[in-house]
């Protein structure tokens, strides 16, 4: 009795050990042992000879790469929640199925969002940095005016994008005594609105002008590119803060930097950046001055979430090669 050939799977970045071990049991796998980002030529070579490509959100799988892919490549099983790094329409024209790993990052990303909501107004990073860098004699102990931040209890949060993550942020915000406001393509269910005591704003402009903290939780799409534009940043109150754990290009980063430098908003907490992995030096300078808290895209970085993502990748691959529709198939949109 002959056994079916295992699909050749190429994984572009290092994954958690349990995920890699399971992949090696099930597939013929090429792993990225040193976790080095692959060049465009290396990605093209992998796509010329693999049955399955497992990219991550930092791998740009564009139309040109897809059109040059070899005839064996039938599945791009992205190790990511979003697929803005993959040209899904080009893949569909080539007969390549695309899958992702949705619904496993919600709670971890919402936790990190809330951490930034707390960290920026309460100057957590600034205080930690002072103690770690100060000379022993520099801190004289508690005083009434030392490291004064701003209270968040009783303030208004405006959530831009009320999907799973935005809703999870809303639950945490309500528990911290914030009143929940949100802007979304459509209203959430009446039951969830009632649970969060949330106010829906059809006008993003009007919401931005009235809240104390803005949390960006929408996906990166052509429609959300620079959604938080220079004009919209000008609408925010001088005492307001903005937090982004979604995608860097949802905010016009240059305009945000200018607002922070000119004290037109109070501060920013950013886990994502418009030109990752490059971080604008002016943002780094603002962080040193206590105007921003910057994190290296670690909102979903828990071992649990990465293993859950790997499990979804494996299920998508196995389902596809068993002749069934993968549970997390991404359908093409309109060109």
Write structural notes for this entry.
The chain has 335 residues and is α/β, with parallel strands linked by helices. The chain has 2 domains: 121 residues, NAD(P)-binding Rossmann-like Domain (Rossmann fold, 3-Layer(aba) Sandwich); 190 residues, Rossmann fold, CATH 3.40.50. It has 13 helices and 12 strands. It has a 7-stranded parallel beta sheet. A 5-stranded parallel beta sheet has the order 2-1-3-4-5, sandwiched between helices. Strand 9, helix 10 and strand 10 form a beta-alpha-beta unit. The longest helix has 19 residues. The protein is globular, with a radius of gyration of 22 Å.
What portion of residues belong to β-strands? 5-15%
Largest sheet: 7 strands, parallel
Give the number of helices.
13
Gross CATH architecture of the largest domain: 3-Layer(aba) Sandwich
CATH class of the largest domain: Alpha Beta
Q: Low-confidence runs (pLDDT<50, min 5 residues)? A: none
Helix content: 25-40%
What integer is the average pLDDT?
96
**What class, by secondary structure content?**
alpha/beta
CATH superfamily heading of the largest domain: NAD(P)-binding Rossmann-like Domain
Placed side by side, the strands forming the largest sheet appear as: 8-7-6-9-10-11-12
In N-to-C order, the SSE pattern is EHEHEHEHEHHEHEHEHEHEHEHEH
Integer tally of domains: 2
Which radius of gyration do the C-alpha atoms yield?
A: 22 Å
CATH topology of the largest domain: Rossmann fold
Number of strands: 12
Shape: globular
- End-to-end separation: 46 Å
């Amino acid at each position: 009795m002959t056994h079916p050939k295992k699909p050749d799977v190429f994984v572009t970045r290092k994954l958690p050990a349990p995920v890699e071990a399971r992949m090696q049991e099930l597939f013929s796998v090429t792993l990225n042992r040193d976790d080095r980002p692959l060049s465009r030529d290396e990605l093209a070579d992998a796509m010329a000879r693999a049955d399955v490509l497992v990219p991550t959100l930092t791998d740009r799988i564009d139309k040109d790469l897809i059109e040059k892919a070899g005839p064996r490549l039938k599945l791009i099983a992205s190790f990511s929640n979003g697929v803005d790094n993959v040209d899904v329409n080009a893949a569909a024209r080539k007969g390549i199925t695309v899958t992702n790993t949705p619904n496993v990052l919600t709670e971890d990303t919402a936790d990190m969002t809330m951490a930034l909501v707390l960290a920026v107004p309460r100057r957590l990073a600034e205080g930690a940095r002072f103690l770690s860098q100060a000379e022993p004699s520099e801190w004289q102990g508690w005083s009434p005016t030392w490291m004064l931040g701003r209270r968040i209890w009783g303030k208004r949060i405006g959530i831009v994008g009320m999907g799973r993550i935005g809703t999870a942020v809303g639950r945490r915000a309500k528990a911290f005594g914030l009143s929940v406001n949100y802007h979304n393509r459509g209203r959430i269910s009446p039951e969830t609105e009632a649970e969060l005591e949330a106010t829906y704003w059809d006008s993003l402009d009007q919401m931005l002008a009235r809240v104390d903290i803005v949390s960006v939780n929408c996906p990166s799409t052509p429609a959300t590119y620079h959604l938080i534009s220079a004009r919209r940043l000008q609408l925010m109150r001088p005492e307001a803060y903005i937090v982004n754990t979604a995608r860097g290009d949802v905010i016009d980063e240059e305009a945000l930097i200018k607002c922070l430098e000119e004290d037109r908003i109070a501060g920013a907490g950013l886990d994502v950046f418009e030109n990752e992995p490059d971080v604008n030096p002016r943002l780094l300078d603002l962080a040193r001055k206590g105007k921003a808290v910057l994190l290296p895209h670690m909102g979903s970085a828990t071992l649990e979430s990465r293993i859950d993502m790997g499990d979804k990748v494996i299920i998508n691959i196995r389902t596809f090669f068993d002749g069934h529709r993968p549970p997390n198939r991404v359908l093409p949109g309109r060109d």
